[in-house]
Amino acid sequence: MAELRAPAPPRRHLLSIADLDRGDVERLLDTGRSLAASLDREMKKLPTLRGRTVVNLFYESSTRTLASFELAAKRLSADTMSLRAAGSSVDKGESLKDTALTLAAYEPDVIVVRHPSIGAPQLVARLTDAHVVNAGDGKHQHPTQALLDLYTMLDALGRLDLRVAIVGDVLHSRVARSLLQALQLVGGESVLVGPPTLVPRGLEALGCELSHDIRTIEDADVIYVLRMQRERMGEAFVPSLREYTALYGITPARVREGQVVMHPGPMNRGVEIDPRVADSAAALVTDQVRAGLVVRMAVLYDVLTVAPVEAPERVGVA
Fold first, then answer.
1. pTM, 2 dp
2. CA-CA distance, 187 to 141, in Å (whole number)?
């Protein structure tokens, strides 16, 4: 009689914040905090993912996200390979499907995908046996950015039941959509602020408030500034960048004492954010970059394991 075996656990992916519940978010933040302690050691590398292979498949330009995923995998002792669309067979017309099937033949453990088309990471997840992490798909989702933003807020303010004003080009922002969902999971409030062309009606269905008045940011704990994504704007969404800056740019006069300012990068200094704000003590932009490393370490660990690492006591998660 054949031996009965328990079914293999389902593959774990991170394709969207919608894949997570509050417990998942808390676990990932706790894991990131545990892993952050390793960065203070002389020997920063951990053996946690030794023998695993992480492939970064990036069809869009990236500095922070790609660098942090590469470094996160290396800090956990995984083997890494990064494939950019430029200079690969994609230039010769190879489809995402065929690229995914080619990568699948190498049997990677994790594939991190950034792609301009919504749903690309889901396609890679269907075509391969790898665990897939969405590093940004079109204007749909960017879940690890939202998680590192929560990590940064918790580290700076000690709690997550915050009021966050998300200012700027919401229409084209996958960062905004992911952050809205993440804040809902942890008891935060959010308000979208910007011109009607970039904060259109209907977005309140995402569980947030809408405003076209920059003064709305006055009662926020966090001012989260979005980049004006001119590369995604096929038409004029604002009369001019100068007018946008005058009406919605985050200047020192618009930031009250006690508020913190965040930006997912890269920043258009002098457009959506004044350089004096970007370089001020209120800005947490560098903190976000640091958080990106430990949170992405946590995500790589999490998708490849069943139980979380031993984590310190949670602080301030409402």
1. 0.90
2. 20
